[in-house]
Amino acid sequence: MLDLQGEPQGHLRITCPTALGERFVAPIVRAYVQEYPKLSVDLDLSNRVVELVSEGYDLAIRTGTLPDSRLIRTQIATRGIVTCASPSYLAAHGTPKTVDDLEAHECIPATSDTWRYRIDGEVRTIRPRGRWRCSNGTAVFDAAIAGLGLCQLPAFYVSRAIAEGSLVEVVGAFRPEDDPIWAVYPQRRHLLPKVQRLIDKLRRELPSAMAQG
C-alpha cells in the first residue's frame, strides 16, 4: 500500500522550459533534493513539449495557455511579458506610443510568431518583423541591448536591465495579462508525496524568486 503522507522518496522525473528552469526552478528543486535524502531527481531542461505518460515523466512545468488533455494542472506562479528596446535604438528610431506604431519598427522575434497586447480589455496580436530572430531568449535580450530593435520577453529576462536603464519599456500601457505558470502531471487517484510536496514548494517559492529576478 502506498504511503501518501510519508517522506518523499524514490525517483522523480521533471521537465521544464530551459530559461525558467535554469534561473528559478533548478535551485528550488536542488534544495528539495537536499531536504529529502531518499529522493533522486532527473530535471530535463528543454523547450520541447514532452509526452508525460509515454516518456515516463512525473511532472512538467509549463507556461501560457495549455491544450485540453487528461493531464492535471495547477497554477504555481505567473510571468509578466514586456516589450522594450535600448535607449540607443529609441534615440535613433523614436519611441512607439501605440501598438500600431510597432509596425514601423525593427523587431526581434523569438520563439513566438506573434506578440500580444491588451487594448480596451481585448487581446490584440501583431506579427513582429525584423532582420534577425532567434529561438533563445538570452540571445534576443543581448540583441536588444545591442540596439538591434524591439523585443518582447518574459519580465525575468529584462526587469533588471530596465531598472538599470540599459533597456526601456515601450507601450507599457498595453502590456498583456501575465502568463500563468503551471505544474502539470498525469491524472492519478492519489498524488504521491514526492510530487505533491514539490508542487507546494514551487507554489510557495517560485513567485518570489521570479520577482527578485
The number of E-state strands comes to 10
Q: What is the ordering of alpha helices and beta strands?
A: EHEHEEEHEEHEHEEH
Shape field: elongated
What is the end-to-end distance? 42 Å
**Residues in β-strands, percent:** 25-35%
Largest sheet: 5 strands, mixed
Strand order of the largest sheet: 2-1-3-10-4
Q: Regions with pLDDT < 50 over 5+ consecutive residues? A: none
Look at the structure and give the mean pLDDT. Answer: 92
Structural class: alpha+beta
Q: What Rg, in angstroms, do the CA atoms define?
A: 19 Å
- Level of helix content? 25-40%
| Total number of helices | 6
Could you describe the 3D structure shown?
- This protein has 213 residues and is α+β, with helices and mostly antiparallel strands.
- It has 6 helices and 10 strands; from the N terminus they run E-H-E-H-E-E-E-H-E-E-H-E-H-E-E-H.
- Helix 1 packs across helix 6.
- The protein is elongated.
Produce a short descriptive summary.
The protein is an alpha+beta fold.
